[in-house]
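ok here's the first one, seq then struct tokens
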Amino acid sequence: MVPWLASDDPFPPVERALGASSGAPGLLAASADLLPSRLVDAYGRGIFPWYSDGQPVLWWSPDPRMVLVPAEFKVSHSLKKTLKRVVREPAWEVRVDDDFPAVMRACAQTPREGQRGTWITADIVDAYTSLHRAGKAHSVETWRDGVRVGGLYGVSFGRMFFGESMFAHETDASKIALAALVAHLRRHEIEMIDCQQNTSHLASLGGREIPRRAFVAHLRRAVAEPPFPWRFDKSVLADLIGTSAR
């Protein structure tokens, strides 16, 4: 039985999440509220919300956990060519936190193969925008000729980044944003990006699964450390492609 959380109830230990033999592996709890304070507490414990319109707020902590280690990020030959062009051509920009709610809405509205609807509801947008205003959520955006063509958003506490969603309106536009984020995290020696659940797309970029206990152990250390800065542009991509940003 998954516990129902009242507004002041604490989360149960993540070890109580449903196991692989259940119909919903990783499901930990349900609630009616999605307060920013609840979100902050959840991420610090290795828990995240994922649900659809018409459902209660469902809280998850899967085992194993999908992560991307910045040092293991895979840059394919074709992506490297794209990144070189982005660095070289003035039409391309990487912006940070230019319009966080717009990035969330774009992630919600962009069609995805094999997926009907979106889990990024209006309540989700409101809650994460509140985190953004508090400096705890960020967007990385790919722009070409003054138009936002891709991007991603996520949550960041201490020396940890929790990836949430990406979108692309042009080929590789979301990968450009992710590559810039990874390069920035490498510069600041951030060891791990939380990707939550396994997808073939993330695996192709170097993502891998680790035991939940290892993820939570790293998380406890990382969120207790001072935060890293959130100012960068496309020049960080030079670190990935081994060329000058000029």
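and now the second one, same deal
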Amino acid sequence: MLLAFLGLTIAPPSAGQDFPVPFDGLATDMAMNALHSSMLNSMLEQNDDEPATETRAAVETGYAASAAVSAQAQRQFIAFVRETSGAAGAEAVELEFRKASPSQIWAGMVAGDGLRPGDAVDAVAGYWMLNWIIANRAHETDFDTRPILIQARLALSQNGGFRALTEAQRQELSEVLMMNFLIQQAVYSDAVAKGNEPMQAALADAAVARFRNEAGVDLRAITVTDRGFASR
């Protein structure tokens, strides 16, 4: 599940430390910012009386995973962890990624929620859902993930920046989001397991700040409905 406790031996960050998404090496940062805006717009434009329904967009969101792209994304990510959390944190993450690839770890955690690797929709939706859970400390809240997957597919289909991505860029975008998901989930789950209220609060505030900066959306001002995310 999205907040199943993950056995990553990652040292928790200092209170309030954030984990932004590093897109060095690919021009996907602009696409990601526009994607967040598309998600926000889809929330605001929904008909409040109609549940989300699947409409398959004529936009390619999937990818066939390349080992070379995965290796590049992992190198960049581990370098980022080393820079922000120190050598010990980077070594711990690298050790876990040697045991199983990040996409395999991620897939094992989210399979029960209907998410799969190989499609950017699932990676984007999972990233939004996890950050909403952390921001609202809603780790005991159950909800249907399908409307959010539908919402994410619509957002991607409407996003010019995403449509311009190559297959390799769709893969890297997805796998970087997965790796951020794993770090954020591991640290938050550790705080929950230890009953560390100050750390939970700090991580919640960090998630709010991250999405306010990236998307201009307040994760505490939206909720999960049968239409996906919607304003409270």
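notes on #2: The first helix runs from residue 29 to 45. Residues 4-28 have pLDDT under 50 and may be disordered.
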